[in-house]
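#structure-requests
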Amino acid sequence: MLAVRDNLAQCISALRANKMRTWLTMLGLTMGVATLITVMTIVQGANVYVEQKIANLGTNVFQISRVPFAVTDFTILTKAQKYKKIEIDDMRALADKCTTCDEVGASATTPVHVRYGDKELKDVNLTGLTANMVDIDTRTVESGRFFTPSEAEHRADVCLIGDTLVQQLFGGENPIGKFVRVGSDELMVIGTMEKVGSVLGQDQDNFLNVPLSVFLRMQGLHTTLTINVKAEGARFEQAQRARAAAAVDVRRHRATRCHTPRFRRAA
């Protein structure tokens, strides 16, 4: 049996005898490791970018929804459609029972046509929000203001719009105080949201936000919602671990799918 020194000597001798193969092998290993590091860096950066720009939610927020945020398997989507819809009473039950939750809000989105004068935009994301989503959503108001809890409670016909609507409907002029039409509803613009731009080819400023009560009046009271839960520090894990879902399950007697905020709520 050869000693360790003899084995090393034979290895060095083999490397010297096959210099080209040695260099090619080293080059391949170096490129492989470098590629892996680059890909992992890009993926991690993409995760953060998607969290901040698409979902507009911080790392201290998670969602409970009927359908996963990102669907990679059609069978998951098909299965999710069989779940009962998440409604406003579910959000209220969660807000009452989750003691570790700092904020519990709800949202819902659907595409609509928006008109102003003789101009019209198609496939605008109409989003209904509870008033406290201003403290949950990371996107800030650029000008004007967010709607108040009183306005949400009384179904005030007010809205906030994204930069795409500001530019294409109002030509860059100040839209505050002007009215836009969605179907048969006329909404007064009370604020504009900060510009995000395009993310992965998708316009993130093509939206119109209204109080959730107004959204449900327009789209139907039984529209399925997404519950947004904010919890700080150690309480985040406590809120995320079954407490939020359990609070909803107790009222509904069914399993609710809970999605974590890691690469936007994969199932």
